[in-house]
Design goal:
Strand content: 25-35%
Number of strands: 14
Distance between the termini: 26 Å
Shape: globular
Strand order of the largest sheet: 1-2-3-10-5-8
Number of helices: 3
Order of helices and strands: EEEEEEEEEEEHHHEEE
Oligomer: single chain
Length: 242
């Protein structure tokens, strides 16, 4: 028998509008709404309802108390997560109906690969704790960065100076580096010619091997600048269905 006192409330509500509460809005096409415990007290999970255009990013961050599941409704995204056990980056390109898992405490980000991308990020607690990369960068003293990583203090300070607030969806408004030629979703780009090479540079033509030992787990390996990612195979069939 469920003894949750909320479910016994005479004012019990079991529905909510995920379009109503805005979590973060960069502009009319790139914004996040939400349903969590505050919007629906009876809920034991919660989610962000995310809308993004091609080339925009849910900035690097991590969660201290929740696992996260990304579910794509329309468009496409690349989710990237740093595996602290293997010290490797895992990236997955997922389409409508496909999902990607971001474990608790693992550093990650999400990039939209098409316009009008819509996805949910679903958590296993009613309210997630979030540590934003932008806050880590702007609040860490330049002296500490120099001591820890031997970076130039003034160059570091200048590099992070434009970060004046928590940037949840990037790039920020007015970012001078953002233009079509630097669109991170381009898949046909030739990498720039490295200045230290005297001969013309061309990318490898041989098939790129699957890193981390993936070969028969239902994922194919693909490469697209600047992402290396896995994507679910359409002809993949699991051993069991439920």
């Amino acid at each position: 028998m469920n003894k949750d006192p909320i479910l016994k409330s005479p004012n019990l509500n079991l529905s909510a509008d995920s379009n109503k509460t805005i979590n973060y809005k960069r502009d009319a096409n790139n914004y996040i709404t939400q349903v969590f415990e505050k919007q629906l007290p009876a809920i034991k999970t919660g989610f962000f309802n995310v809308h993004m255009n091609k080339g925009f990013i849910v900035q690097p961050h991590w969660h201290t108390n929740v696992n996260e599941l990304v579910f794509v409704i329309s468009g496409e995204v690349v989710t990237s997560v740093f595996d602290p056990f293997t010290q490797k980056l895992k990236s997955y390109r997922i389409k409508p109906g496909q999902v990607s898992m971001l474990p608790l405490g693992w550093f990650h980000w999400i990039v939209a690969m098409k316009d009008d991308t819509h996805f949910l990020t679903i958590f296993d607690e009613a309210t997630p704790d979030i540590v934003y990369g932008s806050d880590f960068l702007r609040f860490t003293p330049k002296e500490i960065m120099s001591l820890a990583y031997c970076v130039d203090e003034e160059k570091y300070a200048a590099a992070v100076a434009p970060i004046q607030e928590s940037i949840i969806l990037g790039p920020p408004l007015g970012c001078k580096k953002r233009n079509d030629s630097t669109d991170p979703s381009s898949e046909t780009r030739t990498p720039p010619h490295p200045p230290h090479l005297s001969h013309p540079y061309s990318p490898p033509q041989s098939p790129i091997p699957s890193p981390q030992g993936y070969s028969s787990d239902g994922y194919g390996w693909n490469q697209a600048y600047p992402f290396n990612y896995y994507y679910p195979q359409e002809n993949y069939r699991p051993h069991r269905t439920y």
